[in-house]
Design brief:
By secondary structure, the chain is of the alpha/beta class. It is built from 7 helices and 10 strands. It has an 8-stranded parallel beta barrel with strand order 1-2-3-4-5-6-7-8, surrounded by 5 helices. It has a two-stranded antiparallel ribbon with strand order 9-10.
C-alpha cells in the first residue's frame, strides 16, 4: 500500500487542495536559496496550522544548519526532516538524537553504487530521486534492486507512470511535486486525480495479495 507525499506547497490554496485530497504527507521546502518553492520557517509554521491533522508535514532542507530542522521538529511544526544536500551520517544522527523524529535522506540515483550508498544510510527513510529534487525527470528505475527498507520514490512521477512506478519498484511512498502543477502552481484537479489513482492502485494490489494468499 504505497503512501502519497505532495511536495512544494507554498500557499493557503495549496493547503486547501491537499486537505481535500488527503495525502499521507505534505512537503515544504524551507529556506533553500534559489528554489522558487522555498519558504521561510515562519511561513511554514503558518501554513502547517491549516493542514489537516491526519496529513504529516515534512520539511525539505538543503545543507541547512542543523539547528533549523531541529527547532521545527521540536516545536511540532514538522513530523520529519527531509535532507537533500550533503548532510553526512553525523548530521542525520544529531537530528535523530536531539528530536526523536524521523529523518528522510534523499539520494541522487545514477549508478547501482548510488543505491547501495542509500541503503546504508542511518536515516529512518531514504528517498531515491533523479537529482537534487524538483527536476521533474525520472531516473533509470532498472538501477534499483528489490529494496527491503521503506523508501520514498521521487523524480518525474505523474499520472502517466504512477502505476508502473509502484508495480516496478514497490516504494513505501511516492513523492510528487511538479507533475501536480499547471503554470508553476499546484493544480487542485491534478492533486485529486493522483490521489484517486493511488487509492485505486492500492485497492487492486490489496486484492491481488489476498487472492494469492487464498491460492497458497
Amino acid at each position: 500500500m504505497a503512501k502519497l507525499k505532495i511536495c512544494g506547497l507554498t500557499c493557503k490554496e495549496d493547503i486547501e487542495a491537499v486537505n481535500g485530497a488527503k495525502p499521507d504527507f505534505a512537503g515544504f521546502i524551507i529556506e533553500v536559496p534559489g528554489r522558487r518553492r522555498s519558504l521561510t520557517a515562519e511561513q511554514v509554521k503558518v501554513l502547517v496550522k491549516g493542514l489537516d491533522k491526519e496529513i504529516l508535514p515534512v520539511g525539505v532542507f538543503v545543507n541547512a544548519a542543523p539547528e533549523l530542522p531541529i527547532s521545527l521538529l521540536r516545536d511540532g511544526t514538522l513530523w520529519a526532516a527531509q535532507l537533500h544536500g550533503d548532510e553526512d551520517e553525523d548530521y542525520i544522527e544529531k537530528i535523530q538524537n536531539m528530536t526523536g523524529k524521523p529523518v528522510i535522506k534523499a539520494f541522487s540515483i545514477k549508478t547501482p553504487e548510488d543505491v547501495q550508498r542509500a541503503l546504508r544510510s542511518p536515516a529512518d527513510y531514504i528517498l531515491l530521486d533523479h537529482g537534487a529534487g524538483g527536476t521533474g525527470e525520472p531516473f533509470d528505475w532498472t538501477l534499483v534492486p528489490p529494496v527491503r527498507r521503506p523508501f520514498f520514490l521521487a523524480g518525474g512521477i505523474g499520472p502517466e507512470n504512477l502505476r508502473s512506478a509502484i508495480g516496478t519498484l514497490h516504494p513505501w511512498a511516492v513523492d510528487l511535486s511538479s507533475s501536480l502543477e499547471t503554470d508553476g502552481r499546484k493544480d487542485r484537479a491534478k492533486i485529486q486525480q493522483i490521489a484517486r489513482m493511488l487509492k485505486q492502485i492500492n485497492t487492486l494490489e490489496a486484492y491481488r495479495k489476498e487472492r494469492e494468499a487464498d491460492l497458497e
